[in-house]
Amino acid sequence: MGTAILIILGNGAVANVELKGTKGHQSGWIVIAVGYGMGVMIPALMFGNVSGNHINPAFTLGLAVSGLFPWAQVVPYIIAQVLGAIFGQALVVATYRPFYLKTENPNNILGTFSTISSIDHGTKESRYEATVNGL
To answer: Which segments cross the bilayer (predicted)?
Structure first.
């Protein structure tokens, strides 16, 4: 649930800013930053005492590497996080579907699915950097 909320609020904010015809179209980076900030804060407050704030696979893996989380639970947690992310993104796409259809720039659409920098509009170099840094 936590990862789904992160994706819904974070990528939903990106979709609101980047997709043509939305009320927030071209409203700026601050809307996206607030969306992701809320996307981290809200599930942390809601589920922190339940799951230990495991809303991102990097967090789960980091805790396991540092010895603060059992390795036996890493794979199930990451599977749950990935499924939550898929569910969250599916809701974003379903909600913003009419605006995806209106948007002609493929880089604006791509930005709603990934962390590729919108400053350079998803150049080949930024896609490479996003992939390498994401690993």
So the answer is: 25-47, 78-96
Alpha carbons 113 and 92: distance in angstroms, whole number: 9
Q: Sort 19 into a burial class: Cβ within 10 Å, 0-12 / 13-18 / 19+.
A: buried
CATH of span 2-134: 1.20.1080.10
Asked if 86 and 80 touch (Cβ cutoff 8 Å), the reply is no
| CA atoms of 115 and 126, how far apart (whole Å) | 9
**What 3 state SS string does the chain have?**
CHHHHHHHHHHHHHHHHHCCCCCCCCCCHHHHHHHHHHHHHHHHHHHHHHHCCCCCHHHHHHHHHCCCCCHHHHHHHHHHHHHHHHHHHHHHHHHHHHHHHHCCCHHHHHHCCCCCCCCCCCCHHHHHHHHHHHC
Burial label, 24 (beta-carbon count in 10 A; 0-12, 13-18, 19+): middle
pLDDT digits over 70-121, tens only? 999 999 999 999 999 999 999 999 999 999 999 998 888 888 887 655 555 5
One-letter amino acid at 4 equals A
